[in-house]
Amino acid sequence: MSQGDATSKSPRYQQLGDLLRRKIVDGVYAVGDFLPTENELCSEFSVSRYTVREALRQLINAGLVKRRQGSGTQVVASQVQGNYVHSMRSLSELFQYAADTVFRIYAHDTHHLDAELAAYVGEEGDKPWLQVSGVRLGHEGEAPICHSTVLIHPAFANVADSLEQHEGAIYSLIEQRYGVAVADVVQEISAAPITRVAAARLATSSRIWAVRVIRRYLSADGKVLLISINDHPGDRFSYTMHLRREGSRGWSGV
Q1: What whole-number distance in Å separates Cα of residue 50 and Cα of residue 6?
Q2: pLDDT tens-digit series, residues 81-95
Q3: CB atoms within 10 A of CB 218
Q4: For 177-219, how does the pLDDT look when each residue is reduced to its tens digit (9 = 90+)?
Q5: C-alpha span between 99 and 76 (Å, rounded)
Q6: Residues 126, 118 contacting (CB under 8 angstroms)
Q7: Residue 185, CB-side half-sphere exposure with 13 Å CA sphere
Q8: What CA–CA distance (Å, rounded) separates 158 from 174?
């Protein structure tokens, strides 16, 4: 990958997608223009056709381009549309998501959780947990991605004194402070009525439903380090998942 992207830790398709996105936003590819063909992109950036197609899929999901049958890929917008497309396949991509977005905290306190939140932490719900509330922001100028409530295990509650100065994901602060590591993240997705607090913070109606994404960050021995409860407005969120069959081979035909 050229133009300074080769050293990035993100997947190659994401590097290419980000590069093409910048070119669209900067007007290198104007609305109405067609992007180079897949073959041309493969040659220019020395990447596979799979990498190119995944990069273009990101732009399609963002509402920046559309496939035109028999013509190619045409730019249809110069700014990312309102919907947030959530796509990740590995822990590294989840961590990259945290690095590429900003979590703006508006409240945090250590206390006994109410019944609803205590249900998320199970048998340890009778202990005081550190509760952090905030909104996650994407690119500058976009609407907030989601409202988040982060529940931090009592053993790590002292990170509260560093939250305001810390830049980056909260899990990384716990790892640095306590020498533990996130080994697994269990993610659940469901639909739920959006809370009044979340609706107000996200500037949306309190009558809509939210896509609720719950993530439990676990250490190698299976213990919960923190739990994040993320409410995305249902009208500006979609989730994509790419599943590849193990051992599958490409088609050799023409």
Answers
A1: 17
A2: 555 555 555 666 666
A3: 17
A4: 999 999 988 888 899 999 999 999 998 888 899 999 999 999 9
A5: 28
A6: yes
A7: 20
A8: 9
